[in-house]
Amino acid sequence: MQITPAAIVVFAAALVGAVPQPRQNCPEATQFGVLSVSPTTVSAGDTLTVNADFSCAINSFGHIPQYTDYYIEVPVNNNGHEPPVLLARRTLASGSTSDSFTVQVPDAFYFANAGYVVILDTTYSIDGTNGIPFSVVGGVEAPITINV
Hints:
Keywords: Signal. The protein is mainly beta. Helices cover 12% and strands 43% of the residues.
């Protein structure tokens, strides 16, 4: 068997393509996205900047968002008078791994000393046991303080 210069080039190109890429460090908590908000202390009418990073959710867990819903909620010790306040319902642009927007904090009924969070609910599709896809929802949150 004779090795030609063309065969060496093909073999070298295959080796270059086989170089392992650095592994993305993705803790399980990132499977629905990573959420950050700024500022973290707001009043009704203030502007809130929301950033969501889905790179781990998409690349490591295969959770490709169909819909993303952002809420202000009181997740603990809710007195029953504090329903979630929808900030935005969005769809992730095709091929994108992040979402960023600004929104005005609605003039809703907020309560002093309540522990508020911004919740990101990510709806994505998975295949059922019979191979037919269905939608599931997972969420992450970021704490905020709302001045009353």
